[in-house]
Amino acid sequence: MHMQNDPATDLAAQLPRLEALARQAGDIAMGWFRPGARTTAEVTYKNGGSPVTEADYAVDRFLHDNIAAIAPDAGWLSEETLDNVARLTRTQLVVVDPIDGTTAFTRGDDRWSVSIALIDNGRAVAGVVHAPALGRTYAAALGRGATLNGAPIFVSGRASLAGARIVAPRPLHPQLEQAGFSIAPRVPSLALRLAEIAGGGVDLAVAAPNSRDWDIAAADVIIREAGGLLTELEGAPLTYNRPRLSRGALVAAPKAIHDESLALARRATKDL
Fold first, then answer.
1. How far apart (Å, rounded) are the C-alpha atoms in residues 199 and 97?
2. Residue 48: which pLDDT band, with cuts at 50, 70 and 90?
């Protein structure tokens, strides 16, 4: 009897191709990046004042045109493409942030990334967060573990929150330091900041409300495969391909301290 393949497993198997695409996309963006100096790319501003560059658009076009070979039946959601609600009718979705951390990119700060995730039935099943200027590529797929530059990574082995190293919004720093936590530097790219939790260098990340799915979907599967959880404050697993793209406050932490981390974040973010 012929067994039908599981679509989520099929998508997960595309991870090497997804990584290759992310690297190519990063190479395109690097054409405009100047370490420590202003980008050569033309910069314009969206409603709300956030910058977008010709590099963002070039990467967006490249990924849109090439990812169909990997996920032919998937819808498309990108920070730099007008959202089309037709995606809601698809069971699979590609979620892209062509350059996460555009402000950093424009200033010559190397802490930006290309973020790509594949979604099946609302769940992130493969993701890549590629930081070309740092030479770092985080990747993961369902059941395949998480890697940094090809080597397996895991969340920190911390068993309790006491003395944890935390990355959090600046308004929370005084109360966290007072409670005995050490504050890790805040990386401008949220995707990269969250991926660092998967690598175990930081124990816990709290992100302010209002991130978008393209900031977090790839990091979500990377954290999960590394032994952690990324959730909103109520603690349920995140689902994607919803009409609403913005998120509440987020918490990323190893599974062992996630409940404790949620309780801390709920108290700390009351005033955010």
1. 21
2. confident
**Structural domain of 128:** 7-150
Do 193 and 248 lie in one domain? The reply is yes
Separation between Cα atoms, residue 147 and residue 192, nearest integer Å:
13
Which among 154, 155, 153, 151 has a CA at the least distance from the CA of 165? 155
CB 94 within 8 A of CB 52: no
Contact 40, 152 (CB under 8 A): no
Last residue of a domain, one of 86, 115, 150: 150
Closest CA to 52 of 20, 19, 29: 29
Cα distance between residue 251 and residue 104, in whole Å: 23
CATH number of the domain residue 185 falls in:
3.40.190.80
Q: Which helix (H) or strand (E) holds 253?
A: strand 250-254
Average pLDDT for 143-153: 98
Q: What is the pLDDT of residues 161-205, one digit of tens each?
A: 999 999 999 999 999 999 999 999 999 999 999 999 999 999 999
Kindly state whether residues 95 and 185 are assigned to the same domain: no
Q: Looking at the domain assignment, is residue 109 inside a domain? A: yes
For residues 195 and 221, the answer to whether their CB atoms sit within 8 Å is no
* Phi, psi dihedrals of residue 13, rounded to the nearest 5°: -70, -15
Question: How do strand 92-100 and strand 75-78 relate by DSSP bridges?
Answer: parallel
pLDDT category at 2 given cuts 50, 70, 90 is very low
Task: Examine the domain organization and report whether 145 and 172 are in the same domain.
Answer: no
pTM above 0.70, yes or no: yes
Contact 116, 219 (CB under 8 A): no
What is the Cα–Cα distance from 94 to 55, expressed in whole angstroms?
20
Are 101 and 199 in a shared domain?
Answer: no
Ordered DSSP codes for 44-58: EE-TTS-EEEHHHHH
